Amino acid sequence: MLTRADLENDVLRRHEAPRHPGLRCLSDAEFEASLETVLAARRADEECWVFAYGSLIWNPLFEHDARELATIHGYHRAFCLWSRLGRGTPEHPGLMLGLDRGGRCHGVALRIAPHRVREELTLIWRREMPMGSYAPRWVKARVGTRHHRALAFVVNRASPQYAGRLPAQTIVDTLATAHGRFGPGWEYLFQTVECLHAHGLHDARLEHLRSRVQERLRRAAG
Q1: N or C: more exposed end of the chain, with fewer CB within 10 A?
Q2: Is the pTM of this model over 0.90?
Protein backbone atom coordinates (compact mmCIF):
# COMPACT_ATOMS: atom_id res chain seq x y z
CA MET A 1 0.00 0.00 0.00
CA LEU A 2 1.10 3.54 -0.73
CA THR A 3 2.66 5.30 2.27
CA ARG A 4 3.44 8.88 3.24
CA ALA A 5 7.14 8.04 2.95
CA ASP A 6 6.52 7.08 -0.70
CA LEU A 7 5.10 10.55 -1.30
CA GLU A 8 7.88 12.31 0.59
CA ASN A 9 10.35 10.47 -1.67
CA ASP A 10 8.23 11.18 -4.78
CA VAL A 11 8.46 7.47 -5.50
CA LEU A 12 5.99 7.39 -8.39
CA ARG A 13 7.71 10.01 -10.54
CA ARG A 14 11.29 9.43 -9.41
CA HIS A 15 11.47 5.65 -9.06
CA GLU A 16 8.47 3.80 -10.50
CA ALA A 17 7.78 5.64 -13.75
CA PRO A 18 11.44 5.62 -14.96
CA ARG A 19 11.28 1.82 -14.93
CA HIS A 20 8.72 2.04 -17.75
CA PRO A 21 10.08 4.33 -20.49
CA GLY A 22 6.77 4.24 -22.35
CA LEU A 23 4.99 6.07 -19.55
CA ARG A 24 5.20 9.85 -19.70
CA CYS A 25 5.22 11.69 -16.40
CA LEU A 26 4.85 15.42 -15.93
CA SER A 27 8.14 17.26 -16.08
CA ASP A 28 9.21 19.18 -12.99
CA ALA A 29 8.10 22.40 -14.67
CA GLU A 30 4.68 20.98 -15.60
CA PHE A 31 4.24 19.52 -12.13
CA GLU A 32 5.04 22.81 -10.39
CA ALA A 33 2.91 24.83 -12.80
CA SER A 34 -0.10 22.61 -12.15
CA LEU A 35 0.22 23.03 -8.39
CA GLU A 36 0.86 26.77 -8.60
CA THR A 37 -2.21 27.27 -10.81
CA VAL A 38 -4.44 25.68 -8.19
CA LEU A 39 -2.82 27.58 -5.32
CA ALA A 40 -3.17 30.87 -7.20
CA ALA A 41 -6.93 30.30 -7.50
CA ARG A 42 -7.28 30.12 -3.72
CA ARG A 43 -7.54 33.14 -1.45
CA ALA A 44 -4.86 33.29 1.22
CA ASP A 45 -7.47 33.44 3.98
CA GLU A 46 -9.65 30.68 2.54
CA GLU A 47 -9.96 27.29 4.22
CA CYS A 48 -8.42 24.48 2.19
CA TRP A 49 -10.73 21.49 1.83
CA VAL A 50 -9.93 18.44 -0.31
CA PHE A 51 -12.83 16.35 -1.62
CA ALA A 52 -12.11 12.64 -1.21
CA TYR A 53 -14.14 10.08 -3.13
CA GLY A 54 -11.88 7.02 -3.35
CA SER A 55 -8.62 6.02 -1.69
CA LEU A 56 -8.15 9.52 -0.27
CA ILE A 57 -10.94 8.58 2.15
CA TRP A 58 -9.34 5.43 3.53
CA ASN A 59 -5.66 6.20 2.95
CA PRO A 60 -5.31 9.99 2.74
CA LEU A 61 -1.62 10.20 3.79
CA PHE A 62 -1.80 13.97 4.23
CA GLU A 63 -2.30 15.83 7.48
CA HIS A 64 -5.78 17.25 8.02
CA ASP A 65 -7.51 18.78 11.00
CA ALA A 66 -11.17 18.13 10.10
CA ARG A 67 -13.18 15.47 8.27
CA GLU A 68 -16.78 16.05 7.16
CA LEU A 69 -19.25 14.33 4.85
CA ALA A 70 -19.58 16.31 1.63
CA THR A 71 -21.48 16.31 -1.65
CA ILE A 72 -20.55 17.87 -4.97
CA HIS A 73 -22.71 18.27 -8.07
CA GLY A 74 -21.77 18.02 -11.72
CA TYR A 75 -19.50 15.00 -11.34
CA HIS A 76 -19.85 11.33 -10.47
CA ARG A 77 -17.42 8.67 -9.25
CA ALA A 78 -16.44 6.14 -11.95
CA PHE A 79 -13.74 3.64 -12.84
CA CYS A 80 -12.56 5.69 -15.81
CA LEU A 81 -8.78 5.84 -15.39
CA TRP A 82 -6.23 3.22 -16.37
CA SER A 83 -3.64 2.51 -13.67
CA ARG A 84 -0.29 1.45 -15.11
CA LEU A 85 1.70 1.85 -11.89
CA GLY A 86 -0.22 1.67 -8.62
CA ARG A 87 -2.93 -0.92 -9.30
CA GLY A 88 -1.70 -2.37 -12.57
CA THR A 89 1.23 -2.51 -14.95
CA PRO A 90 1.84 -1.15 -18.47
CA GLU A 91 1.29 -4.70 -19.75
CA HIS A 92 -1.87 -5.29 -17.69
CA PRO A 93 -3.37 -1.94 -16.65
CA GLY A 94 -5.66 -1.73 -13.68
CA LEU A 95 -8.41 0.81 -13.09
CA MET A 96 -8.76 3.71 -10.68
CA LEU A 97 -11.63 5.97 -9.78
CA GLY A 98 -11.99 9.46 -11.18
CA LEU A 99 -14.63 12.17 -11.11
CA ASP A 100 -16.26 12.31 -14.53
CA ARG A 101 -18.90 14.65 -15.89
CA GLY A 102 -22.50 14.50 -14.78
CA GLY A 103 -24.50 13.61 -11.70
CA ARG A 104 -23.37 14.10 -8.14
CA CYS A 105 -20.94 12.47 -5.74
CA HIS A 106 -21.10 11.87 -2.00
CA GLY A 107 -17.73 11.71 -0.31
CA VAL A 108 -15.64 13.17 2.48
CA ALA A 109 -14.08 16.63 2.72
CA LEU A 110 -10.73 16.85 4.52
CA ARG A 111 -9.45 20.22 5.74
CA ILE A 112 -5.76 21.11 5.70
CA ALA A 113 -4.53 23.48 8.41
CA PRO A 114 -3.59 26.91 6.96
CA HIS A 115 0.12 26.63 7.77
CA ARG A 116 0.33 23.19 6.09
CA VAL A 117 -1.45 23.89 2.79
CA ARG A 118 1.51 24.04 0.40
CA GLU A 119 3.40 21.17 2.02
CA GLU A 120 0.42 18.81 2.14
CA LEU A 121 -0.83 19.70 -1.33
CA THR A 122 2.63 18.96 -2.70
CA LEU A 123 2.34 15.43 -1.30
CA ILE A 124 -1.15 15.05 -2.75
CA TRP A 125 0.20 16.19 -6.14
CA ARG A 126 2.93 13.56 -5.98
CA ARG A 127 0.22 10.99 -5.40
CA GLU A 128 -2.45 12.08 -7.86
CA MET A 129 -0.58 13.99 -10.57
CA PRO A 130 2.59 12.15 -11.66
CA MET A 131 1.15 11.58 -15.15
CA GLY A 132 -1.38 14.40 -15.28
CA SER A 133 -4.33 12.02 -15.14
CA TYR A 134 -6.47 14.58 -13.32
CA ALA A 135 -7.47 18.18 -13.89
CA PRO A 136 -7.65 19.49 -10.30
CA ARG A 137 -10.18 22.22 -9.74
CA TRP A 138 -12.02 24.04 -6.99
CA VAL A 139 -15.65 22.97 -6.77
CA LYS A 140 -18.58 23.89 -4.57
CA ALA A 141 -19.09 21.25 -1.90
CA ARG A 142 -21.87 20.98 0.63
CA VAL A 143 -20.24 20.22 3.98
CA GLY A 144 -22.84 19.78 6.70
CA THR A 145 -25.16 22.78 6.49
CA ARG A 146 -22.53 24.95 4.82
CA HIS A 147 -20.94 25.22 1.40
CA HIS A 148 -17.19 25.39 0.89
CA ARG A 149 -14.89 25.45 -2.07
CA ALA A 150 -13.07 22.15 -2.12
CA LEU A 151 -10.27 20.84 -4.30
CA ALA A 152 -11.48 17.94 -6.42
CA PHE A 153 -9.45 15.68 -8.70
CA VAL A 154 -11.58 15.62 -11.83
CA VAL A 155 -10.50 13.24 -14.56
CA ASN A 156 -8.43 14.74 -17.38
CA ARG A 157 -10.21 13.49 -20.49
CA ALA A 158 -7.21 14.44 -22.65
CA SER A 159 -4.91 12.12 -20.70
CA PRO A 160 -3.82 8.79 -22.22
CA GLN A 161 -4.88 7.28 -18.90
CA TYR A 162 -8.54 8.22 -19.47
CA ALA A 163 -10.51 5.04 -20.11
CA GLY A 164 -13.88 6.61 -20.80
CA ARG A 165 -17.10 4.77 -20.12
CA LEU A 166 -16.19 1.10 -20.09
CA PRO A 167 -18.55 -1.90 -20.21
CA ALA A 168 -19.28 -3.22 -16.72
CA GLN A 169 -17.78 -6.62 -17.59
CA THR A 170 -14.50 -4.99 -18.62
CA ILE A 171 -14.35 -3.17 -15.29
CA VAL A 172 -15.10 -6.38 -13.37
CA ASP A 173 -12.49 -8.42 -15.26
CA THR A 174 -9.86 -5.70 -14.83
CA LEU A 175 -10.43 -5.18 -11.11
CA ALA A 176 -10.39 -8.93 -10.51
CA THR A 177 -7.11 -9.58 -12.32
CA ALA A 178 -4.90 -6.46 -12.38
CA HIS A 179 -2.21 -6.01 -9.74
CA GLY A 180 0.34 -3.23 -9.30
CA ARG A 181 2.96 -1.97 -6.87
CA PHE A 182 0.32 -0.94 -4.34
CA GLY A 183 -1.90 -3.99 -4.57
CA PRO A 184 -4.72 -5.56 -6.61
CA GLY A 185 -7.60 -3.69 -8.15
CA TRP A 186 -10.23 -5.65 -6.25
CA GLU A 187 -8.69 -4.53 -2.96
CA TYR A 188 -9.00 -0.88 -4.02
CA LEU A 189 -12.68 -1.41 -4.85
CA PHE A 190 -13.49 -3.34 -1.67
CA GLN A 191 -11.76 -0.85 0.61
CA THR A 192 -13.53 2.07 -1.02
CA VAL A 193 -16.96 0.47 -0.58
CA GLU A 194 -16.21 -0.50 3.02
CA CYS A 195 -14.96 2.97 3.90
CA LEU A 196 -17.98 4.61 2.32
CA HIS A 197 -20.19 2.32 4.43
CA ALA A 198 -18.22 3.28 7.55
CA HIS A 199 -19.15 6.90 6.85
CA GLY A 200 -22.80 6.04 6.23
CA LEU A 201 -22.44 6.49 2.47
CA HIS A 202 -23.59 4.12 -0.25
CA ASP A 203 -22.71 3.99 -3.93
CA ALA A 204 -25.02 1.53 -5.71
CA ARG A 205 -22.74 1.22 -8.74
CA LEU A 206 -19.68 0.37 -6.67
CA GLU A 207 -21.64 -2.06 -4.52
CA HIS A 208 -22.90 -3.85 -7.64
CA LEU A 209 -19.35 -3.99 -9.01
CA ARG A 210 -18.10 -5.42 -5.73
CA SER A 211 -20.68 -8.23 -5.86
CA ARG A 212 -19.68 -9.10 -9.41
CA VAL A 213 -15.96 -8.98 -8.65
CA GLN A 214 -16.45 -11.15 -5.56
CA GLU A 215 -18.31 -13.71 -7.66
CA ARG A 216 -15.58 -13.70 -10.32
CA LEU A 217 -12.89 -14.20 -7.67
CA ARG A 218 -14.86 -17.11 -6.18
CA ARG A 219 -15.14 -18.74 -9.60
CA ALA A 220 -11.43 -18.26 -10.22
CA ALA A 221 -10.65 -19.87 -6.88
CA GLY A 222 -12.47 -23.02 -7.92
Answers
A1: C
A2: yes
